[in-house]
Amino acid sequence: MNAVERLGLAALHRLDPETAHGLSLHALRLGVVPLPGLVTSPRLQTTLAGLALANPVGLAAGYDKNAVALGPLARAGFGFVEVGAATPRPQPGNPRPRLFRLTEDAAVINRFGFNNEGAAAIAARLAARVRGPVPVGLNLGANKDSTDRAGDFAAVLAQCGAHVEFATVNVSSPNTEKLRDLQGPAALAALLGRVMEARAALPRPIPVFLKIAPDLNPDEIAALAEVAVAARVDAIIATNTTLSRDGLTSANRAEAGGLSGAPLFEKSTRVLALLSQATGGRLPLVGVGGIGSAAQAVEKLRAGASAVQLYSALVYRGLSLAGDIARGIDRALAAQGLGNVADLTGTGRGDWL
User: What is this structure's pTM?
Assistant: First the structure.
């Protein structure tokens, strides 16, 4: 983190978290944030569900909900970027305040509730972007008042799918009532069937990922894995935010919503390892949850991930963290004499089981 970024973060942390979030996006769009450009090397170059990645470090959904900063984010050091979640109709989300820093815990609680400008506005921005070497994906959501949530996911994919390189089915946000119920085998199979039908109708079929919650037991993880494989999902993202509040010390620890950041690392990595065991290499996994350093990213890869995603750590470490982690993974690979990041995947899974 350079001095300019350190000062910028200090200024943002004096503001309400959601206001700071909006200002950080505005600064990106204005071009006042130093960006490293593409961070890559032969060791870092890899593939994820057929997508060519310059490095395995991605931006998780939730930061750029409305796809307003696609160009700058593609130059911020990430190997891939996920925007959204998008719902068919615009919705305001839950009342403010709905985003809370837990500074002492290096964590965040949010209860946004899929606030976004709707699929039509987001599709227009995605269609207008200049495509480059950094794949862009869209997180699919459902409207809070929908009577057909499976249909919502399919509708967003139908409207936006031609303009992205991948899409993620998000049934794991804790902030839309009963959304996580869609992770049950029967409901999930039906939902994924609708989404795959929508994908088949696209002019260019794209990979479809599934994002799961960390609050699942081993039997639930195994059942979910079988449904995903049967539905021909292209990858699973593990994990979304947690409802757990174990071990927190910050004043905001009792706020309702999903917890992300450092306290999620061990729980999400254990779920990732269990998922890796359950899928047995039949589809790639993306590790998310609590990553704040290259060493933690390496641990996610060792637990079974082919790639990782960041979000909450950026609140405390700045956007330069993406490039720092990618370069740190490269150094770790070199130190271990490994030729490619794919050589790490799953090598330490047993440590988490």
Answer: 0.97
